[in-house]
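Record type: ASSEMBLY
Status: queued
Input:
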Amino acid sequence: MEQFKLRIITPDRVFYEGDANMVELNTTEGEIGVLPGHIPMTVVIKPGILTITEENETKEAALHAGFVEILQDSVTVLAEIIEWPTEIDAERAEAALHRAEERIKNHTPETDMARAETALLRAMARISVLK
Amino acid sequence: MASMRDIKRRKGSIQSTQQITKAMKLVSTVKLQRARQNAEKSVSYFSCMYETVTSILGMTMGMKHPYLDGGSAGKKAVIVMTSNRGLAGGYNSNIVKLVTGSFSKEDTVIYAVGKKGRDALARQGYEIAVDASEIVEEPAYADAMCLTRRLLEAFEKGEISEIYLAYTYFKNTVSHIPTLTKLLPVALQEKEPAEDTEREEVRGAQAEKEGQNDGEVRKAPMNFEMDDEDALNLIIPKYVTSLIYGGLVESVASENGARMQAMDSATSNAEEMIEDLTLMYNRARQGSITQELTEIIAGAGAIS
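Status: finished
Output:
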């Protein structure tokens, strides 16, 4: 099957580098899946699961912020925060989820709703990638 | 001529100072290696970030946006990156000089990262808006994000109209260059020379591969899912954050490099002084022995 080069880079490491058949991720405009030969495009990431489909296996990671540069034969993810499932602390994610839900439920005019929602999305992404 | 005891005491004190400077040199060597690795690891992120932002700015040319053409007549904000501790040669004073030479204290607010720079600028009458000195110890991307958020809030409120970053560019272990970069408003034709050389230098091995990527980026017109203004709103803060983080890791590497150098020369200076003092001590010892002998001989002569 046709493949493209996938690079996932964070400020402090190269998170992933290799050939992939498909990559799926969550963007500000909705979920997208990218196959080889995609038109050049830049998208901004929303917290969610990143799924890499390789020749024989699929890998998942929790991707929280950054943007993606899609070219015909390569995809570069500039991720501010991204984690493999093994790097996630389940208890902390649960706690963060409850905290964010709490904040959204009892919100006051001062609450930064956008931030609370992002926190909620992040926690959900972490938990769902663990399952 | 100083007495033997004085010389010995002086030598002892220099020796213990030398031990301290030697230890500090070793510590900063280790820290430098780590800081350097951090700086090198982040390079590929910044080169991609830079390419993307350049291509986006190329698309949105002629657009009106506060991030591109500056806000109202507010003050200028300068992020000053120095160290929290001294004994690093000219590292801190070079940055302070750069800032005082380029900005007047009337229309500048300082975002201090590092106690030394903060104190020096506060003494000279600059206004310190934010003090984030603790992030120098362990630079993390989250810290840079936090600082960016505060800066952009002030920028959007119109309190500041321009944002500059003063940091020390880590060229190599012995050469650190104090650098001033304009973060906002983003000027398209402006390329940070430091940023560029850094990329080219450290990329080295990757150059070929990256070079191909460069070509592709320019060939293909980029599409955006959202409209241009949203793209700028989302991507420019990330760009600023990455520059701040980049400046931070470079500064930390430079700080340790500068300290290592300073401590190295202090150690060798101490070595030199010890040599001189040893010579003086030996002369004084010989002198006193000769004197004693003369006295004994004179005494014996008087008795017989």
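Annotation: Chain A has a mean pLDDT of 86.
Annotation: Residues 86 and 109 of chain A are 38 Å apart (CA to CA).
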